[in-house]
Amino acid sequence: MLRQILLLSSSKVHGYDFLEYAANDICELLNENKVSTVTFIPYALSDHDAYLKKVEEPFKKWGYSVESTHNGNPLQIIENAQAIFVGGGNTFRLLKTLYDLNLVETIRKRVLSVGIPYIGTSAGTNVATKSINTTNDMPIVYPPSLEALKLVPFNINPHYLDSDPNSKHKGETREERILQYLEEEDSHTVLGLREGSTLWIKNNTAVLKGIQGARLFIRGKDPQEINVGSDLSFLLKEEGSA
């Protein structure tokens, strides 16, 4: 299976400009594929023009032009895309729009069959997985299904937060909520990406990159701490369910 995917927990990390912490990995992926124009999918936010301007700034600094699917025929733009970048915002809004515009299968085909690079951040990372069940976002709209692009055969929880033992907050922790999800029979393995954590996937190889580790949740097992540089290729072996 052709697959060149970079999944970021967030585009904004403390101490870094927009996308800056992942700049080297983004540019390496795009340069390897001789990409000159990045196709941006802005649907996680409502103001597409403003979002495009924000995304253009780092990519143009790195030497790439950016086109957005909202400035033309989205299906045709995706069909001709050299690489896809899907930004963060509200995951439910993003996935609903992808379904409304009939882009789900086209994106999947372009990434998994043609092999063009896919870069996602936050909501863009959520929709790259099996389903958006493990998003942190509020369901402000309702997509026809929670099933997502299925570029990888597991789920991700971007912006994963560890519980603070000194906090007076007594509500559920992120870990508890993910474990509750895993109680369901149709649940999927969940990779909790902390801020600054990035998953690099090339064909059937997956490596944790970035500046923070991650937390792995597999049904029936204790949560595992994953360090930067760890090989996570075994997560891609559930391809029959992808």
UniProtKB/TrEMBL annotation:
Leader peptide range in chain numbering: none
Gene3D superfamilies: 3.40.50.880
Pfam families cross-referenced by the UniProt entry: Peptidase_S51 (PF03575)
GO molecular function: dipeptidase activity; serine-type peptidase activity
Keywords tagged on the record: Cytoplasm, Dipeptidase, Hydrolase, Protease, Serine protease
Catalytic activity, as annotated: Dipeptidase E catalyzes the hydrolysis of dipeptides Asp-|-Xaa. It does not act on peptides with N-terminal Glu, Asn or Gln, nor does it cleave isoaspartyl peptides
Location relative to the cell: Cytoplasm
CDD domains assigned: GAT1_Peptidase_E
BP GO annotations: proteolysis
Superkingdom of the source species: Eukaryota
EC number: 3.4.13.21
GO cellular component: cytoplasm
Family stated for the protein in its record: Belongs to the peptidase S51 family.
Function field: Hydrolyzes dipeptides containing N-terminal aspartate residues.
Name by which UniProt lists this protein: dipeptidase E
Lineage: Eukaryota, Metazoa, Ecdysozoa, Arthropoda, Hexapoda
